[in-house]
From TrEMBL:
This is Glycine betaine ABC transporter substrate-binding protein. Residues 1-19 form the signal peptide. It is found in: Cell membrane. Its main location: membrane. It comes from Robertmurraya mangrovi.
Amino acid sequence: MLKKLVGVTTALALTFSLAACGGEQTGGSSDSVGKQVDYKIVGIDPGAGLMKLTIDEVLPEYGLDDWKVVEGSGAAMAAALKKAYDKEEPIIVTGWSPHWKFASYDLKYLEDPKGIYGGAEDVNTIVRQGLKEDHPDAFKLLDQFKWEPEHIETVMNLIQEGKEPAEAASMWVSENEELVNTWTEGVNKVNGEEFKMLYVAWDDVIASSHVVQNVLESIGYEVDLIQVDAGPMWAGVADGSGDAMVGAWLPTTHADYYAEYEGKFEDLGANLTGTKLGLVVPAYMDIDSIEDLKE
């Protein structure tokens, strides 16, 4: 199978390449959607299961042999989307919910009649083996950490509006005392115990990780929040160099990592449900299904 991954390292490179596609608006062009976007789907980091699923399954299953998925990051994807949206130009991105972009722009998921992206995913909390014995109060808090998409989207929007992640987390925690109390119920205060949390630089995971850091620190932990890629995040919890992560997208996005390290971590279950994966376009584009990408 032809390699469908094009490496791009910065948001500038992404947006430049998209601008080079021609800039014709979907509504005013007789060209196919593929020609309008140069047969490119703007993706995120290559370690994401969403990328692997799109490249290895969605493109071949829908017969999109001429299409490519542009490799970048969540931030680069968002920058490319904003540039295209502001000019009402066509663009297709790999997308997921919850994400602040759905609050900022009028977007829609392309229908997936083959069901390759599956149904809603969960975001799980994964901790290292032995955490319950070493840090029982952190373990209990993490085990009780549950919230809804509207909660995390509030934090994400605060960050998108210019707040630092730690500041956004602090604001949200102070305004949601009743929910936070359910996380800390039965949890004892500690005295400066060190705790390492690993996270990937995805907008939702940044938000959730900083919120959990804030609450852990409120009960006396000294939390070292360490940003890594998805692979090292899983490897770090599996080998014990990291204590926990709260951004494990399952059963699809992180399926390969889960299988690779299974038996070397403890899965505390979902902290967030009702997520979604797929291909996303602006609502002004005259396209509704992945099947419409075929000429």
